Amino acid sequence: MxxxxxxxxxxxxxxxxxxxxLSWPTCIPARKTLGFALDNHVATVKSYNSTxxxxxxxxxxxxxxxxxxxxxxxxxxxxxxxxxxQLQNDTFTDNTLDARFESAVTLYQEKLGLPITGKLDFATVxxxxxxxxxxxxxxxxxxxxxxxxxxxxFFPGKPHWxxxxxxxxxxxxxxxxxxxxLTLSEIRVAFKRAFRRWASVIPVSFTETDDYSFxxxxxxxxxxxxxxxxxxxxxxxxxxxxxxxxSGRFHLDAAETWAVxxxxxxxxxxxxxxxxxxxxxxxxxxxxxxPVTEAVMxxxxxxxxxxxxxxxxxxxxxxxxxxxxPNFRFGSLLESDTSTNQAVSLRNIRSYNVxxxxxxxxVLILCLCx
Length: 370
Ligand SMILES: [Zn+2]
Ligand SMILES: [Zn+2]
Description:
This protein has helices at about 1-25, 40-45, 50-60, 70-80, 100-110, 120-130, 185-200, 275-285, 310-320, 350-370, and strands at about 165-175, 205-210, 215-220, 240, 250-255, 255-260, 270. The protein is of the alpha/beta class. The chain has three domains: about 1-25 and about 350-370; about 40-130, Muramoyl-pentapeptide Carboxypeptidase, domain 1; about 165-335, Collagenase (Catalytic Domain) (3-Layer(aba) Sandwich). The chain has a five-stranded mixed sheet with strand order 2-1-3-5-4, covered by helices on one side. Strands 6-7 form a two-stranded parallel ribbon. α1 (about 1-25) packs antiparallel against α10 and α7 (about 185-200) crosses α8. The radius of gyration is 23 Å and the shape is globular. The two termini are about 15 Å apart. The site of one zinc ion (ZN) has 6 residues, from α8.
């Protein structure tokens, strides 16, 4: 009798405990859909005419199928640039908002983890005008978990570096294509830290070499059209691009105000070099753009913002290509989410919560069976 009562009490305890855990959010709340205040955005995005943006935002938001929306062609060009419009020889002079445009917007929202409305809503327009990586989002293989959660993505064919493990890759800076608002020493430190983040989670090491022509990864800062069919566009807009394995080409837009310390660099359009370097190294290793907004491999970065720490999504993706660094422990995820020296952060712990929930479900079932 007592045993029965005791078992029921335990079951009841676990039942309520389980309910509480289920009501615990399974992931950190997504960031505000607006990356930063529109006025702030308009003031800083010099690559687009701010007056144009401000005067057209209302018409973008109110547009419906079949209507003519002034300068919607500019949005079409952007969607085409990143692979959402598969059109040949289109001059994008048509301002009609049609079904094809709506499906491109829907795909854009899906790929970038935005609310899927098929409309040019505020979150979508704001995202379109946020500075970003030049790699297209659509030349990727989407991967979904059993629960339909989107996560890391590879390039088609899953290319990765094929060397003997532990792998050693070298990188070098171009002497001809450099910037001068930062010293070479400052640039080298930023890149060293960026490479070290990835090296801490996979059995791959990165060493700087002076031999540019023989380096596996070649880094340079370029203006505009620089011969690879992917021209840069001046201040903001596209910040950098790199290529999938084993190309090793790593290009940054020399027109940006690159920064390694925002206390020294006061420009409103300053871009954090280390954050962009960390993102582009992900491409060099074989990761495409992730729809997880907190991930380093998410394609956009606002001026004066930093995104340094690898999230669980980034780590799981790169380890699926190269395996784990024997010294890496997932437990280190729990150590700190504040230090920028950590390779990883707690900003994306949803997978842990899923495992906790599954464990508790198991405990509950066992208790009910007792
Ligand atoms: Zn990218
Ligand atoms: Zn390039």
